[in-house]
Amino acid sequence: MKGNGRKQHMPKLEDNSSSTPSKGEATDETSIIPQLSELTLSEKTAIESEHNIKRSSREVPVEALDQKPSPGDDNAPPVTRPQDCLLEVTSTPDRGLAVFTTRKIKASTLILVETPLIALDKREEDDHAAIEREFSHLPRPTQKLYLKLFDAQKSRMTRIASIYYSNCYNCDAFKSAGKGGSAIGLLPSRINHNCVPNAQFCYDERTNEMRFYAIRDIPRGKEVTSNYDKVVFESRARRQRKHQIYYGFVCRCDACEPKTEFWARSDERRQNMYEAFRTVQGCETQFVSAHNTSDRQNTQQHVIDEALTSLRKLEELLLKESLVGVPLANTYRSMAKWAERKYDVDQVRTWKTKEMQACITGFGHDAPRTKEIEQKLADIETVLRQ
Ligand SMILES: [Zn+2]
């Protein structure tokens, strides 16, 4: 798995400890999307200068790397997937194959849909034999493509298992309780990591599809990236150590190799995010323990205000750092929870609405989390009308 296993595509804001990362660690989180227009000019410049990668002329058609639906049925209508007209796979001088946009893409656009080559439930994903078994069921040409995927050469396992763990995405947040697990796809495996990603992974349990949404506007010819890490507060040095160990690469994103003063302050922003996050965690403990005190109401009110102040700070920092995916959505979810604790319905509605926008951008209109928030907002409206 890229990472110590699976790509943590779903950085889980509320959980700062990661055990076995998979690309796109799917938690039940989402992403809110500050459009570029919402950022200051200097921030825009910083973002737009991101990844000015020299692309080699050797481009690989997406179709060559991806599984099309079986062409056996001549009567079947041709299936067009978003990646067919939005993405291409290109060889880069320093990072192997990478995925680039072939046109300008707006935030919230579904850019990639693929049925996994192998998808394993939680109880099976650490079982190398299960990976071998699923691999043996793949058609021979697909096996050949699988064996060309990046291999971090993990120790004490076969190449097939090592490739799986080097490329699979965590699906925990997207499956019904207990199922979790991970999945590997051909094109998703070509999406490289970036600590400031522009795409969000999610897994659609109903259709068994790996999906990627653009979480920011992406200009034509830019690399599509996702965050393999679950945690977004870590320092550059710590991230780089982790990437080396688990994936065998050195991240050269704007946050890791800053070329501007703005990005040189990335570590400072992430440290401040962590402090705000820890304050909220502390507030949670204080809120619960204030339950049995004589001055409960006043104490809890004070704790709620402190938590909301820290969350506002966290929101601001995440937006500045362009971490507009899951971490931001989770911040809004947390804000709504604290606002609910002080019975401030207007604030609950505000934060839930922002969380929903983030979910739409990162996971789509039909995602279960988006639908849940939609229902919650409808309930709030009903209460307000009464
Ligand atoms: Zn990086």
From TrEMBL:
CDD domains: SET_SMYD. It comes from the Eukaryota. Residues 1-10 have a biased composition (Basic residues). Residues 1-82 are annotated as: Disordered. SMART domains: SET (SM00317). Residues 29-43 have a biased composition (Polar residues). Residues 85-229 form the SET domain. Residues 45-61 have a biased composition (Basic and acidic residues). Signal peptide: none annotated. InterPro entries: SET_dom, SET_dom_sf, SET_domain_protein. This is SET domain-containing protein. The lineage of its organism: Eukaryota, Fungi, Dikarya, Ascomycota, Pezizomycotina.
